[in-house]
Write a structure and sequence with these properties.
The protein has one domain. It is 37% helix and 12% strand. It is built from seven helices and six strands; from the N terminus they run αβββαααααβαββ. It has helices at residues 2-15, 67-78, 85-92, 104-109, 113-118, 131-142, 158-170, and strands at residues 30-31, 42-47, 53-57, 147-152, 177-178, 181-182. By secondary structure, it is of the alpha/beta class. α2 (67-78) packs across α3 (85-92). The longest helix has 14 residues, at 2-15.
Length: 194
Amino acid sequence: MVDLFSLLLTFFMLTTSFRPQEAAPIETPSSVSEKQAPDNDIMTIFIDKDGRVFFNIDNGKDTSTHFREKLLQKMAEQYKLTFTPKELDKFSKMSSFGMPIKNLKAWINVKDPKDRDKLQEGIPTDSTDNQLAWWVRMARLTNLGAEVAIKGDADTKYTDVKKIMDLLQENKVNKFNLVTNLLREEISLKDIPK
């Protein structure tokens, strides 16, 4: 019995995939939709309650494709930056981020996670340097099959979410998911106001 338990425990530990840590705590609004976002090939744009924007794209179903690494190389070319192979590899294993690209090298190389969190000030989305638009464009070129999801905090202003939706549509992304919490509520006829 102990051997069986040890085998099962080992199996579950080796096959479990942990959800990556998000750049900012985001409490999503509730909805009744039961559609689930895909586990792979997804580009996620996070918006916290202060309107700061964070970005993540996974490496896809086949992790040997290294979409994140290729994406960072394209962004480095766009902004005339260089990243070492070690930095590219480290970035490909990291989770969501939100800072101007000039600070990305420092974020990748930070040793203490607390210092890494201090660099998370949000990706610029202003009209003079809309870096999020470049992340979206380059991510679409890197992984053509990636679905797009917007995960906004329940307290995020509508105008901040609309700005991101407009940015997606400007980049020919007309189909995207809005991430929410599933809320199931039974309503009876007596609960409906007359």
